[in-house]
Every structure is written in structure tokens, then in C-alpha cells.
Amino acid sequence: xxxxxxxxxxxxxxxxxxxxxxxxxxxxxxxxxxxxxxxxxxxxxxxxxxxxxxxxxxxxxxxxxxxxxxxxxxxxxxxxxxxxxxxxxxxxxxxxxxxxxxxxxxxxxxxxxxxxxxxxxxxxxxxxxxxxxxxxxxxxxxxxxxxxxxxxxxxxxxxxxxxxxxxxxxxxxxxxxxxxxxxxxxxxxxxxxxxxxxxxxxxxxxxxxxxxxxxxxxxxxxxxxxxxxxxxxxxxxxxxxxxxxxxxxxxxxxxxxxxxxxxxxxxxxxxxxxxxxxxxxxxxxxxxxxxxxxxxxxxxxxxxxxxxxxxxxxxxxxxxxxxxxxxxxxxxxxxxxxxxxxxxxxxxxxxxxxxxxxxxxxxxxxxxxxxxxx
Length: 374
Description:
The chain is built from 16 helices and twelve strands. The protein has helices spanning 3-23, 39-54, 65-75, 93-102, 108-117, 121-128, 142-154, 157-167, 197-202, 221-226, 240-248, 251-259, 282-293, 309-316, 327-335, 358-373; strands spanning 59-63, 82-86, 173-176, 183-188, 193-195, 207-213, 232-235, 264-267, 299-303, 339-343, 346-349, 353-356. With 374 residues, it is an alpha/beta fold.
């Protein structure tokens, strides 16, 4: 094991200890013993599952935020050949503070994707997503701090993420789209210039054009290398202006996706987002993607399940509306050569939040990928 991996594991262990102290104040941790016997049988079953996963289609999934991690959590049951490409323009919360104070790329979305692809995401979720609530660590999540420690030890964000890929034994690979510090910029329809992800998000539905600075920023070489080998390229789900488009604004990445023979699939969000996409329909989301990517996606996966009335009302109070395709939109997309796939995608997480149904979405995308391979 390389020295820096040992140090990362040690740092991770220390931070996990801090989190466990907060999570389990009595420190009465039970030692879990596996049931007697059956080891050989479990090994055989494990090897068979591993072999099946290794034979799965090659996915490149582009996005960030909660949407991408939700997708990955479902996909890992079908294939190990997953490359998650994550935007690095986040400026809010713990990620924003670490970016400002330490000069590190925002770790939050990367952390969420690592946890989603891990073998045992339930245990890791509780630990790596644990958020300190006092002292100098107030507001920071454990996973973000471990990534920061890894970055400080190896001196490079992409190498730190690669070490975390190995440390967590994830099913796939998580990559930042670039290791350069990039800032999102835009111009609204009335000519106002906006700077930074938060400002763009507040003005998204009024946006006329967007770009990254520095404009010379290059995508990570591993990202470009993964795209030609993909059996399917998935865009979303996730925030249009702050999770999906920032990846495509890197021209070299957009060009590689555009030239790939693999089907390009856009997964539509369940709801519009307050301010960012208020008043926009699914086709306006796709028009933005096509304008930045330089091509219309081959497929759009859209929800057809009614959203429970109480959740619909709750989201509407915040300015969010459900996204369903109208007949006019269907005709428009068909005319653009974009095939429509409907699915039951609504899931209520923790009794509070609307999320895509990970398993149903993964099954739809696996079908598209396999049809493409055949």
C-alpha cells in the first residue's frame, strides 16, 4: 500500500472516530459477528455477482448534486463499469467554505457519488454524510473533510478522489470533470451579468448564455478517455444550469460526447427548481443542452407517475412545478429525432423529498444500453 494511502486511511479513521463519538456518545459499539458457516457459499455467490457486474455495459454519467448520486445508487446493482463525471462549480455550504478557505475543489458532489457507488452505502451514508454541528467544524460533513485531508496529503484533487475510489472499494469510478478552478458565468435576457454558481442558479430561467472562466480550462484526461468506450452516456438527472451544463461547457468534453457513437440520454427532472428553472418545460431543458452540447440527445427519459398531492402542494409553495411532457412537446422532440421513454420514476425519500426511483431508472437505462450494444 503506498505511503499516502496509509496516511489517507489514518486520517479517515481519525475523522470517522470523531463522527462516531458524536453519533454514538455512549461508545457502546457492538461487535458484529457473521453467522456460523456458509463462508464458502457466500464467496461463490459473491464471485458470480462480481463476474456479472464486470460484464455490464459501460456507463458515463454526467452531472452532479443529488440527481447523479441517486442514479448511481441504482446503476451499481447492474454494472461495475460506471464512470461518474462530476461538476466542480459548487459554491454553497461546506463545499463552498472549503473551496474558499483551502483552495480545494468543492468535494460535496464527489463525496455523494462515492457514497452512492460504495458496496455498503447505508453504513457509509451515515458516516460520510455526518455533519458536525458545533465548533470550528460546524456545518462540515465528514466525507468532505476526508477528501480535503486526502487532497492535502497527495497534493492533487483528482489523485485524492482516485485514492478514495480505492479506499471505499466503489463499484465504478468517480471523476471531477476538471481539476482546474473554474467559475460559472452567465448573461441574462436583459443583459445582466451573473458570476458564480449561486448567482447563476438564482437567474437560471432568465439566462441567455453561459460560460466558464478561465475559458482555457481543460477536462481531466481520464474523463476524455472514458467517453469513446462508453455504451451509453447519461446526462442528469440534476440541476440544469449548475450540475449538467457546467460539464458540457468544457468544449473538449462536449466534443467527445458529441462524437461518441453511444446513445446520449437525458433524464428529465421530476420538478422544476425554484428560480433556477421556474417556468421551464422539459423541451426548454433539452434545448439548452443541445445548444451547449452541439447536438440533441438521442433519448429523453421522462416521468409518467402522478406526484402525491400533498408533496405537489409542498413543492408548489416553493415555486416548483411537476415536469411532464405535453403532446406538443412530444411532437417537437420526435421532429428533432429524440426518442421518448416514459417510466415510473417517483420515489419519496425519508418521507420528505421527491427523488427519482433509482432502481426503475437504472432498469430503463440498462435496456437502452443493451439495445445499443446489440
